[in-house]
Amino acid sequence: MQNSLFPEPGAALVGAAPPDAALIELAQALPPNLRLGGSSWNYPGWAGMIWDREYPEATLSRYGLAAYAKYPLFRTVSIDRSFYQPLSITQFAQYAAQVPDDFRFVVKAPSMVCDAQLRDDSGRGLSSNDSFLNAEVALRSFVEPALAGLGRKLGALVFQISPLPFVLLDNMDAQIGRLHDLLRSIPDLRGIAPDAVVAVEVRDPQWLSPQFIEALRASGATYCMGLHAKMPRIKEQLPILRKLWPGPLVCRWNLNPLHGAYGYEDAERQYEPFDRLQDIDSETRAALVRVIAGTVGAGQNAFVTVSNQAEGCAPLSIVALAEAVRDLRR
Length: 330
What we know:
Layout: H1 21-28, E1 34-39, H2 57-63, H3 65-68, E2 76-79, H4 81-84, H5 89-96, E3 104-108, H6 111-114, E4 117-119, E5 125-128, H7 135-150, E6 154-161, H8 166-169, H9 172-185, E7 197-202, H10 210-219, E8 222-227, H11 234-243, E9 249-253, H12 264-271, H13 282-297, E10 302-306, H14 308-311, H15 314-329
Parallel strand pairs: 1-2, 1-10, 2-3, 3-6, 6-7, 7-8, 8-9, 9-10
Antiparallel strand pairs: 4-5
């Protein structure tokens, strides 16, 4: 098939970097209910860490997932491309076929459900989006194909709600009501995917109210802790998790606050090719380690994905997190 994620005859395969004994030992020291991973897998600069040599970005995007999943510390990944265009059951199934049985995917819902505005290629809002937080569209375009395609390898369905226009921020009760209706429409996923959880990530602090927390609790969803400069620092988000306890941890460490709320592209330019740590965020790292250790220590699942824009190199950030979790458990 022309759109298959599997290589056509003669296509270049992506090889994994040789296994590192120290990383294998570190992975074995971590609790099985902790899953760490990156935000996508198409980075040539990870050569020598994840890949056996450097490959073009397009090759990694198409064929790199199987090699990614061989890295000892990677037991999850965030599928971010689903935010830009809904994926089919077949596409999800092709991803699932490339990873081990104990691998779990974190999947972002499409912008057609999570963005209140229709945007042009530059990201400028053009008009209101009638499908925003529409339950029927969410089920048809996201929940059902992801569940059917990934099956038991589904970990977290993340509704990352884009920044709202001012007119909607002025009426948050209505937005929370729409979100609650959507979340209530999602059937129990655990009959097919025992570890699956629905999580909501936001980019406006106005969401973080008692009504929002109650909408999550009443629908069986959880809060995705989004570590991004548009949101309060991790310590200020922790009270939300405490109010939803007990439950799993879903965290996406997206952007170092040094770059400001709109500095994602600047961070990307500065950190490329993402082969070394450049701006260590000790505050976030230390707080996140404590949250991870407390969550998994209580028997709950933790799904933590890290972007290169967090500290400069997602694999090395994950090594540091894993070492700190291991040391805290000793």
